[in-house]
Amino acid sequence: MTEHAAAVEITNPTGLHARPAVKLTKLAKTFGGAAIQVALAEGGPWIDAKSVVKVMAMKAARGTYLHIRASGEQGAAALAALRDLVRRDFDEGPEAHGPA
Amino acid sequence: MSNVGIVIVSHSPDVAKGAADMVRQMVGDEVPLAWCGGNAEGGLGTDVAAISEAIERAWSEAGVAILVDLGGAETNSEMAIEFLPDERRGRVVVCNAPIVEGAVVAATEASGGSPLDVVKATAEELSP
Hints:
- The complex is a heterodimer.
- By secondary structure, chain A is an alpha+beta fold.
- Chain A has 3 helices and 4 strands.
- Chain A has helices at about 20-30, 50-55, 75-85; strands at about 5-10, 35-40, 45-50, 65-70.
- In chain A, helix 1 (about 20-30) packs antiparallel against helix 3 (about 75-85).
- Chain B has one domain: Phosphotransferase system, mannose-type IIA component (Rossmann fold).
- Chain B is globular, with a radius of gyration of 13 Å.
């Protein structure tokens, strides 16, 4: 099965705190057929991106890299969507105008 | 597809409303949500009738997960569940989880369409 992977720097001022964690897991859940995992290092530990409790517990700070990997149905689209969400600072920055 | 509903039951209406506000802001409005707090006299406490009404407001065919704070909130919620009609009683559960964090993660899980047992288990992952 093809696995898609990327690493993206968390530039959101407060890091992957509660609200971004909710956004990330909600977005991941929209890709029902894809297995999506995130980690703070390429070597893992990899955690399920659809588990809000585990994503919040990562406590990923600003400046760290979030590693994302996805496989299965719409794996590539899932990876792109999550990567873009992190790049957009979870739509929380002052420059975020679009609908959340 | 109907998502599991969330009910927040606190001794304090301010706590219950505040937790519900956090759910709305952080998770959104695709999850049925209701809250109640305070006793029938307007003081701190919980009220079985008010809990029953909150369950009704948050009702979903997928069921309802209740988040509570202290002892009486749990026992009164269980009593409100007892009073439900037979066809609904099995679809309402009290989660053993912290009220604010539990409500947010339960609603997040519910927003993805997860069934009631998964929503409850996710909230309970927060408890040691």
